[in-house]
Amino acid sequence: MKIRLVTDTWEPEINGVVRTLRTTMGILRGMGHDVRVLHPGQFSAVRVPFYPDIRMAWTRSDDLGRQLDDADCVHLATEGPLGVTARAWLLRNRRAYTSSYHTDIPAYLWRYLLVPPQLTYRVLRFFHSRSRKVLVSTTSLARTLASWGFRNLVRWGRGVDTELFRPREARSQRLRPLAVYVGRVAVEKNIEAFLKLDRPIDKVVVGDGPHRPELERRFPRIPFLGALHGEELVAAYADADVLVFPSKTDTFGIVMLEALACGTPVAAYPVPGPLDVIGGKNAVGALDEDLGRAVDYCLQYTDRRACRAFAMSNSWEKCTREFLGHLVPSRSREHFSSRAVEAMGAA
Question: How much is the pTM?
């Protein structure tokens, strides 16, 4: 089946959306599908002034449309310029498509530009209004969007590579517990709440982003390791005694599943994302309005074996089949290949 994904965020950016799309694309290709990603690196792009790590690309609708014309299914992964351009071409040519909602854009635009959330939700609702299905990562997010008038919401979960992310046989020995933050180093991630924790623990930050220079200056005793990949990232998770996830705006938080797969419990706030993954206080983590109390609970009451077992039930293969099952024929049935129909029916 010919599947086309349109996204305004792609490598070399490092974020949950890119990781989700990259992993899903790889599994779909392994299943025999023809998957192509249309992303900013293929077009003229400029960097966002207030967020230089992000690139915005523009192209003519017909130029983009030529790369969508033969698709059996089209999925719009983001609401940026490429997503808007693809949407216009699809509607003009009476093509059906699906879309997904990954990022809490209303919260970010309010923080950076003071754009009222109700205005942003109205624009996003319009973008997704003609989508046959709007894929969201959690039940909490679906409820939030439904309250703002979004329709056709379906769940598309997230997974973890449990072969890569795994416990280590021998963990580093230290005098004090180690707490780790993994993710983008940006204002909206609320990393200061982690760095300011008044607990007898060592802290380390894994990741990069625009807020890193300022935080390194203000917290000189805390190591900032930059972005890690592969076995280095696995070691950072597995050596830690707790992953602290201080964000209040993430719609999911794949790093939580990665940490759990390595046997490391999660301390977070009781907000959408952590509520959907961790739930409350249990053997795999703790949610508390006092982040320090959540860390205390994780260090005393969680079970590293339970963390691993929990993560094992969240495979990327399962999530990819969910995604495949939500796709819809882009063209009319008479133009839709029999192989594509069979593939979607088997998802």
Answer: 0.85
